[in-house]
Amino acid sequence: MSLSKYCLNNRLRMTAVALIASLTLGTLTAFSQGSARLAADAPDEYVVQVGDTLWDIAATFLQDPWYWPEIWYVNPQVENPHLIYPGDVLALVYVDGAPRVTVGQAGSYRLSPEARATPLTEAITSVSYDSISAFLSRGVVIERSEVDSLPYIVSTKGDHLIAAAGNTVYVRGTSAQPGERFNVVHIGDKLVDPENNDLIGYQGIEIGEGTMRRSGDPASMALISSKQEATDGDRLIPASVEIPLNFFPKAPSSNINGQIIAVVGGVTQIAQYQVVVLNRGSTHGLGVGDVLTAWRRGDTVRDRVAGGSVLLPDEMAGTLMVFKVYDRISYGLVMEATQAIHTLDYVRNPT
Questions:
Q1: How many Cβ atoms are within 10 Å of 280's Cβ, its own excluded?
Q2: What structural domains does the chain harbor?
Q3: Most exposed: 2, 34, 102, 121, by fewest CB within 10 Å?
């Protein structure tokens, strides 16, 4: 692996004032002092294990993991200071009476440089990619503005009306070169914003996967796998979906009050580690890593004593973290579920 793919990490033991790192994904929001509450059983030291996620580690030290940026103690002179690796020893220390978590060697947190070359790919991620990819493989969400720009199947070689693995299809709207891979997606149900009935996207149903054989207009693509038959008009999406996973869980910088409009996989009741779609995106101030509380909508019940009906209060149902953001919609992973969550339930800033 080339040197550019490695992080020469000078781990310094901090004795200066704690700073919040400026991440490649954006500058972290400042938090008020004292809002982070330590977990009752927060350890003095924790050795990072293979398979850990930043959410798990934050929950080890904090009652509310989304306050991690407030206590993470970094040195801005270190390249990628927010990255944590298996084998790192995380220590709970106090700076001016405030709790901080820093990286060091067991029992020693003095200023002492340590050079180490570590592959960036070995850094722990905020959430498990497996928990995300398992649901994304079942379908995608396509923004309304994106649909018309996607390449599409115009015909199937051999006068077939439908195509499956082993067939060749002709596609338009792409300059892809031979060897590039695409997912074939059927445009499914509309996604409508429940607040104003605006069409904001579509459910994408994954049909299969193909490899470009010949460029041009039309180009030709061989279907190498299929879950169901592909037909004319089905769209192409690059097979690799870029999902940044090295980010800090944090509270949103804006006031978010949205709803769950879909769940990837088509289930009706949403549980832990399932992926949901929200009617909020970057135009509403939502960003990658933002943590939201899910609220179950209160039911309307009949009052058998006083007569009429009464709306029951909304109930807190769980916590989710946003990992992919578009203009008007976003993906969130349910981190905790205290009760069943449903589509049209609310999402709000954590309390």
A1: 26
A2: 3-124 (no CATH), 142-238 (2.40.10), 257-348 (2.40.10.410)
A3: 2
